[in-house]
Amino acid sequence: MRVRDLFVERNYVTTVNDTDTAAQALEKIRKSGFRSVPVVDSNDNYKGMIYKIHLIEYLYEQNGNADETLDKIVKHQEDCIEENSSFLDALLKIKALPFIAVTDHGKLSGILTHNKIEGVFEDAFGVNTGGLNLTISSTEARGMIEKLARTLRGENIEGMLTLDNGSVLVRRVVLTLEGEKSESEIDALRTKLEKAGFRILQIERLEKKI
Predict the structure, then answer these.
(1) Which of 31, 89, 136, 181 is most buried, by the most CB atoms less than 10 A from its CB?
(2) 3-class DSSP state for residue 171?
(3) How many helices (DSSP H) and strands (DSSP E) are in the chain?
(4) PROSITE patterns, from UniProt (predicted)?
(5) CATH architecture of 3-118
(6) Which pLDDT does position 49 carry in this prediction?
């Protein structure tokens, strides 16, 4: 999966210009309703990120010059990612940021938000389709997924996420099975999994998102 499939496109992103004054930038951010926005130059090249709180601190707590340009206040000038970067690369870089700028040869293409990242994980859990969500463990880490797939033959797995990667002692898998199941069907499923060496740690019914 690539970042280009996930980011919010430039036309929908509020920005400030690097030639704006601190007062102008604060006014734009206030109107936007966001706590931070990208900074671009006249050619739409990404120049960093600016926070509403930093502008307020500069202007009202540090008695900064309202007509000063943003050079002293801009943050994360190097924190951006290319459109063709992988989802994993984006996940690692966005951790401490409210969003990460997406660029194409330096120009701002858009931003990748935490909501978009969370959407990917919701899809991996099968949240959108609903069903029966199971957290399953096994003491056999190697070959667990293959064995689990054989055990669940005939079931439609809507989403799957593995945990404890690299562990040689225990492995957990979170998966969502399609459709509703009665208590007797769940009991039968539990028995089948336990016979195969698995243990159900948690069961949750997920409502399908409309």
Answers:
(1) 136
(2) strand
(3) 6, 11
(4) CBS
(5) Roll (3.10)
(6) 96
The residue among 97, 101, 95, 109 whose CA lies nearest residue 44 is 109
Strand partners, 148: none
Percentage of the residues of the chain whose pLDDT score is greater than 70: 96
How high is the pLDDT of residue 167?
63
Q: What is the distance between the alpha carbons of residues 164 and 203, in angstroms, rounded to a whole number?
A: 19
> 107-144, pLDDT tens digit by residue?
999 999 999 988 888 777 777 777 888 999 887 667 78
pTM equals 0.76
What is residue 208's three-state secondary structure? Answer: coil
Instruction: Map out the domains of the chain as residue ranges.
Output: 3-118, 126-206
41 Cβ partners below 8 Å, 6+ apart? 17, 18, 19, 47
CATH class of 126-206: alpha beta
> Which of 189, 198, 103 has its CA nearest to residue 148?
198
What's the CA gap between 118 and 121, in Å, rounded?
5
